[in-house]
Amino acid sequence: MDNSLAVVYLSILVGFLTLAAVAVLRQIFKTRKIEGSFARLRKKLEKEKGTTQEYYELASIYSEKKLYSQAIALFQKALKAAQEEEEKDIAPIYNGLGYIYFSQEQYDLAIRHYKEALKSKPDYVTGLNNLGHAYEKKKLTTQALESYEEALKLAPNNAIAKRRAESLRRLVSA
What we know:
Layout: H1 2-47, H2 52-64, H3 68-84, H4 91-103, H5 107-120, H6 125-137, H7 141-154, H8 159-173
């Protein structure tokens, strides 16, 4: 009996260790992929002019690394390249800029960039969610609720907008 109990405990321990090892390995491969892209893009863009997509990708990596000033400069280069390439889908670039300013608690600048993203692409649900969140941080409950409701019109199953809109409705009606 004691032997079988020890085997069960050992099996559970091995199972947990296996899951932990898989999680760690996945993270290592993800990090290596990102760092590889980071090095490749940095090297390329130091030597020559890049495309909108390349500037955007590198800016996103800098943003994830919380190197905001470099990310802002690259997002601005992405906007300039988008103008030169006559790229129409610039909403993610403005959204990226908004995210950086939001992360630095510069909510007015974040709102301005989220609005630019929505000007470029009015049905940009991510931009509407982010705009709503920025309005919430500024304590502009009515505008936040409007943003989330607009997002729900475009994507009725949007879990973030549903949750936040319900919370704000309770706040407004209280």
